[in-house]
Amino acid sequence: MAWKNRLDLHTHTDNSFDGNHSTTLLCETAAEKKLRAVAFTDHVEMDVYLEQHFDRTAKQSFFEIIKARSAFRGKLIVCAGVELGEPTYNLPEAEALLRQYSYDIVIGSIHNLRGRQDFWYLPYDSYDDATIAALLREYFDELLQLAAWGRFDTLAHLTYPLRYICGEHGFRVNLGDYAEQIDAILETAAHNKLALEINTSGLRQKLGKTMPEESVVRRFRELGGERITLGSDAHFAEHLGAGLEEGMELALRCGFTHMTLFQRREPIAIAIE
Ligand SMILES: [Zn+2]
Ligand SMILES: [Zn+2]
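Above: inputs. Below: predicted complex with zinc ion.
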């Protein structure tokens, strides 16, 4: 089955510290791959905003996306986005950033707990199951605060720590143990009209599944969630659009008939077909 509407709403250019390819090259690749839309969502980590010069990279990222958007008009829908990391740790600057740029889409993320490093770098070898459980409870608490703040469009990679905890370090986690917390996040997101992101990067990593996985997407629907977005979280041109088909099939199985595209922060329903 050939999919008509493939929207990749979570990607990184070389204006992200971990990105590798220019906005122009990524647009060319997205057009070649016949994606209908791509959103560039470079990282702005609010907890270290000025300290790590995210004010400068945000400016460069936005400028390059606007140029690319006009260059590719008629060939590809190019959305100006941002992946806003930990906005709840620094609300004044997060809210100022959102006033400064007329983004199409804002992704809300948590990559690290307060005062700690990204989940990527934690010393898992010294952790036992109880430490992991405590970390996850704290993470889901932060995600609930993020969803309650709600001044963004889609909630990114809800099970992000599992990429490292389960995928890279082999711990077993039963999401059922966190069902109450996850339900509260999903209900709050649904209430605030946020989309839930189906992040397909986990499919090509050791985790082997989307973030979040199917049971969570289905639960979001049951709890009144109406909007989903899909994103490859590509940091390389070759990963643009990766896994979108599987993500769309998953969304259909969970009862979603449409995905959401955002333009100037307004949701537009696009059929999953
Ligand atoms: Zn992220
Ligand atoms: Zn990302």
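The first helix runs from residue 23 to 32.
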